[in-house]
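User: Hey, my collaborator sent me this sequence without any context and asked if I could get a structure. I don't really work with proteins. Can you help?
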Amino acid sequence: MAWVEAPAGKYTVMTGNEKQSNCQIEAQMSYRDMIAHKPVGEWSKMAPLRILSFDIECAGRKGIFPEPQHDAVIQIANIVTTYGENKPFVRNVFCLDTTSPIVATQILSFDKEEQMLAAWQNFLVRVDPDVITGYNIANFDFPYLLDRAEHLNVPKFREWSRLKGVKSVARDTNFSSKQMGNRDTKATNISGRLQLDLLQLIQRDHHLRSYTLNSVCQHFLGEQKEDVHHSMITELFEGTPESRRRLALYCLKDAYLPQRLMDKLSCLENYTEMARVTGVPFNFLLARGQQVKFLSQLFRKALEQKLVIPNLRSESSEEQYEGATVIEPVRGYYDVPIATLDFASLYPSIIMAHNLCYTTLIKKKDVEKWNLKKDEDYIVTPNGDMFVTTKQRKGLLAQILEELLAARKQAKKELAAETDPFKKAVLNGRQLALKISANSVYGLTGATNGKLPCLEIASSTTAFGRQMIMKTKEEVEKRYCIANGYSHDAQVIYGDTDSVMVKFGTRDLKEAMKLGQDASEYVSSKFIKPIKLEFEKVYFPYLLINKKRYAGLYWTRPEKFDKMDTKGIETVRRDNCLLVQTVIDKVLRMILIDQDVPGAQEYVSLFCEFLGLKEC
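Assistant: No problem. I've predicted the 3D structure and written it out in structure-token form, which is a compact way to encode the shape of the chain:
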């Protein structure tokens, strides 16, 4: 997904029978003559990709989910846009039977389903999209169209790809990752065209209560589909041209909404930048997990240094290591500001600071053999593993992370200065991709069933993290105390993985922010660079219920709070009914925004009474 250049005189344009593809321009040249440009500056811009968003409707039997051996495809709506343009240049609906006109939309009516499907395949090849998108197209639309056309013996229907003679086939596949679990899905080969199923993307990147197109559009766009229930589809189709027009509008909107979602969530930009950063094919980003992205970067860096990576057999292991530390919470309701101090990119910064890598890990016999000096030539991590320092060798992981974080810093700098909305979307996608890539490095060293596990790196990283959290608590409470001239003794009331929450005791929000900033700078000076503790926010007031369960008003500036922030509470959990979410949200607003604790108690009592609960 980056730009390549074919120098003049180095290629030959293919014509007529010489062409092996359906591409608009086909040329032949040696790959050695091709110039690949890094995606920076002028070469970071997105290509004017042609995007097809489509949706199909089927005439199902009453109470039975449509089956391609029995139920006809009755409409196919298509929206075609060029990346960077606001409006589509093609809006059409392929309809079975006559359908009344729709403003600014081409209606193509057919007497027979076979004719309609053949015409749609011809349309697909002629419009020649670079990207095909829709909602649940991978598991429904693509397989249904292919199976239905096969049932009806529609010739050449499977020729969707840009390669001549290559037929598209929907195959059963399984996706498995720690983040997503096991999922049975379908994969359709469409050579030369990218597939972006918005359902798969949103399930992967966003935690929602419901993933229906209606719910997702309501959440992100503030609008919903046309008001046509699936049980009405066959009835509308069998009615009049006007009723089929209503169905066509419904189908057209279902084709347009994925395009709107893609633009709103910057999906194309974000995934393009992820492909550029990690060096993996675009289609892998939805079909594969994190490991392939990390390994691709590792292979790229190893190739530069002429290193060989062992091809290990992936074997599941029961071996485990101790994870992050959690400082026991001092539970309660705090009506004073609570400052939050966060380590910036904690695990990546630990790996860089201590040079933890596959290439720097040594054993005791190596220390003796090479007569290495402790703390000068090598370090011993808190859990007893040994790694050489940068004096001996700089680790591949440290180099990869330094490049990723430096590139992210540059992307954020350019993003702040950019005014063009499309360039801003690309730069934002790039900095997000760089952040995700950097944060995923640690996790993959600890994946015991992965391609390249190294528990010495993973366990050393978490051991340093635990040590740093406890040292932060110790340093803050030792410095900010009455004995040192401060008005109160500071107390760390909670800590989790990469952050600590500090009660400085002051009731003044500005002062708490000032103390938080000072504490972050002071504690950062106690650690090896690039480890850095940052002050980001203050919670005031703050309700600490338990580990990983809290709520508070989130302040980044003293004039006005940013939002009500909750973690692990029923307002954000998806395994509770909507009534519980609504009531708890109301109670939290009364406690935190109105600071009316007695009123919240009374509200809960009245609600329990309304439900007929005697005790609450």
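In plain terms: The mean pLDDT is 90. You can pass these tokens on to your collaborator as they are.
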